[in-house]
Amino acid sequence: MSFDLVFFGGTGDLTWRKLMPALFQAFRHGKLPEGGRILAVARDEQSDERYREWLKERFREVDEGKRPSDEEFQRFAGLIHYRRMDLSQPDHYQGLKDWLDARNADTVVLYLATSPHLFTGICQQLGAVGLNHDKVRVVLEKPLGHDLASAQEINRTVRSVFHERQAFRIDHYLGKPSVQNLMALRFGNALFEPLWRRESIANIQITLAEQLGVGTRGAFYDGTGALRDMIQNHALQLLTMIAMEPPASNDADAIRDEKLKVLRALKPFTRESVGRDVVRGQYRAGMCGGHPVPGYLEEVKVPPDSHCETFVALRTEVENWRWAGVPFYLRTGKRLTARDAQIVVNFRPVPHQIFPGASVPNRLVIKLQPEDGLELQLLAQKGSGHGEQLTPVTLDLDFDKAFATQRVGAYERLLLEAIAGRLNLFVRSDEQEQAWRWVEPILDAWAEDGNGPRPYAAGSWGPAAASALVARDGFSWAEEQ
Q1: If DSSP codes are grouped into helix, strand and coil, which group holds residue 68?
Q2: What pTM was computed for the model?
């Protein structure tokens, strides 16, 4: 199958830090289909060869295990082309179409690795020159909009040019191997399904923690914040995967229909419940990773009076028969104790305990990063003495060790899925808009709250109020247990 993959924003950070390295890994693993071309478009005036040299220099900053040798890069670079393009000029889109039509590949993937405010204009121009025919797919990076109204406007424009089946909205967490194994865990094994409900599960915690601060992205981040950056997309997508009902099939729309039902069943926020069930924070100077780091307000291009949140913890419920009464706790933040992304399923204690001192319920930990695997935490006796206390033990599955073959990274998987035209790992427009609809009352309540976010020290797990949020129900975060 021949394909042309076009990166709008071909000299941007996303392209050289994430997308090109992911494509190289697919090439290295022999998974990239034969007959492909990769075209980077940007405003700079340069030749194919000059762009390839520029990219080769950027690859030196990629993680060591993912860097190509000179011989590997030379072979990979043979697929790469460059074209100067001013996205405001209609004739440049016609030139792109002529370049693509001269080859007439089986599939054309147009990846918009640009600022979201350019999405509508690019799509309109693509439609105007006929680059929306059945062979074309358009990939849209997050954040898709700043609020519900802007997301709806982008989606209206995209749908006016492309069919929904041609639109691939990226959430790179859906490409992570552990997230993919959520489907296998739940719907490929008889073990968990009878327990996957309110009668057996006490609470579910989703943590997306980062040690890094905002770095040089202060201006961008200050207009975004943790709620828009992580909760509205990544955390809610993980929640839907955990809470969804079994789909009728592995078809993309069957899966996305069930995810949408979860989003619609989320307990809506009111101004009162935002104050009670949502905690926002902002990091101050502290020690992170053994080094002193500045506070958010001291970061480059951050206003000294900013109320932007760098931490969010919230409590919600899925109001349906399976999950009624089970709290879901979502948490994300920058400059926290560790880089740690995980889902923790805390089971209820046994109804009648016959062993002394056995107070730790079973727990399933789905690890997303930095490790990738599953932990099932059980209770067992060390010895055979009568009346001996039970001790926590862990069944640990490390996916990297369990599967000897080279594992596929998130962006690598998503790019290959987009080329193949499979929509299972991409977000449908109604899902995305429903997620915005759910978080918007939080944004509205914060806009009217002059108190701003709670301070927390860099290197901690966030404001103390986040622990109190969980403790109010008689529970604690995983690291506090």
Answers
A1: coil
A2: 0.93
Phi, psi of 419 (to 5 degrees): -60, -40
Q: Which residues are annotated as a binding site for substrate?
A: 172, 176, 210, 229, 334
Matching residue, tokens 């828009």: 228
In a domain? residue 421: no
Which helix (H) or strand (E) is 434 found in, with range?
helix 429-447
- Residue 404's pLDDT is what? 59
pLDDT at res. 142: 81
Confidence of residue 386 (pLDDT cuts 50, 70, 90): low
Binding site members: 43, 86-87, 142, 172, 176, 210, 229, 334
| 234 classed as catalytic | yes
Candidates 323, 328, 322, 353; CA nearest to 343 is 328
Domain count, the chain: 2
What does the pLDDT read at residue 406?
63
Instruction: Determine which one of 234, 307, 352, 386 is catalytic.
Output: 234
39: tokens are: 């075209």
Per the structure, the complete domain to which residue 449 belongs is given by: 174-405+429-480
Helix (H) or strand (E) holding 392: strand 390-398
Average pLDDT over residues 365-388: 81
Going by the annotation, the residues of the binding site for NADP(+) are: 43, 86-87, 142
